């Protein structure tokens, strides 16, 4: 019995790891990947969804927002550390852009500065626990479930109306050759415009994304004034960021519980 429970736990952990590296997956796809029945996968997803780790919509499963994921995950702890460090760079009176990044979203709750305005295209801002200290402006725009980002001309028109002191964005990867890149095309135009319409640029980036590049370009690497990453970053990765043209790199300390 114990061996069976361990096997199930490992499969569920493997499902989470798979979802962390991609946008979504279908039940049939997961059943084939793990060589089990669709019924078994549905039980796994029931378990994970019940614990706030995944969400299901239109027959597909996607990883839940970082705000609802388990605190023992190394990736989530890294995101929390990055978000906390980013929040410290928001000052009284700032107007800031925040893109659809889950790390940037988590930062909003941690801001302690007063009289801050947040302009964001992340629809999940509505799920943050209130009361919030900030004034929130949600851009509106085109929504493509299950993604939380709002894109298209409506979102762009709203962003063009503002000149923000700072922007805080995440992306899929950064490299010296290709700069900031994304694995989804609709969000790139919004992210690029947020950079153009702000004076200081903060890139919130898990260490595993350093040196990675994806299909859709957002901006050259030198557009990132400051990269905030986690302490999983190696010296080589930090050097890579500076070689790419990043002006400042901050490594946030991640606390890992025993056995995590």
TrEMBL record:
It holds the Pfam family DeoRC. The keyword Chaperone does not apply. InterPro entries: Carb_Metab_HTH_regulators, DeoR-like_C, DeoR_HTH, NagB/RpiA_transferase-like, Tscrpt_reg_HTH_DeoR_CS, WH-like_DNA-bd_sf, WH_DNA-bd_sf. This is Transcriptional regulator, DeoR family. One of its GO terms (molecular function) is DNA binding. Keywords: DNA-binding, Transcription, Transcription regulation. Residues 8-63 form the HTH deoR-type domain.
């Amino acid at each position: 019995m114990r061996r069976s429970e361990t096997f199930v736990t490992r499969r569920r952990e493997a499902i989470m790891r798979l979802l962390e590296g991609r946008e979504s997956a279908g039940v049939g796809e997961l059943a084939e990947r793990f060589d089990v029945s669709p019924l078994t996968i549905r039980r796994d997803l029931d378990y994970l969804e019940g614990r706030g780790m995944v969400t299901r919509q239109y027959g597909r499963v996607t990883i839940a927002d970082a705000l609802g994921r388990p605190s023992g995950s190394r990736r989530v702890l890294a995101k929390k550390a990055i978000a906390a460090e980013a929040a410290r760079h928001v000052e009284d009176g700032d107007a800031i852009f925040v893109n659809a990044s889950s790390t940037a979203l988590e930062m909003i709750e941690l801001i302690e500065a007063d009289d801050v305005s947040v302009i964001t295209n992340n629809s999940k801002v509505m799920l943050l626990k209130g009361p919030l200290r900030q004034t929130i402006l949600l851009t509106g725009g085109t929504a493509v479930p299950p993604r939380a980002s709002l894109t298209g001309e409506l979102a762009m028109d709203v962003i063009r109306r503002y000149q923000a002191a700072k922007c805080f964005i995440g992306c899929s990867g950064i490299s010296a050759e290709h700069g900031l890149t994304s694995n989804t095309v609709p969000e790139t135009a919004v992210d690029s415009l947020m950079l153009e319409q702000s004076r200081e640029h903060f890139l919130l980036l898990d260490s595993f994304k350093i040196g990675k590049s994806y299909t859709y370009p957002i901006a050259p690497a030198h557009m990132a004034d400051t990269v905030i990453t986690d302490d999983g970053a190696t010296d080589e990765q930090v050097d890579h960021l500076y070689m790419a043209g990043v002006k400042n790199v901050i490594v946030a300390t991640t606390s890992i519980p025993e056995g995590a």
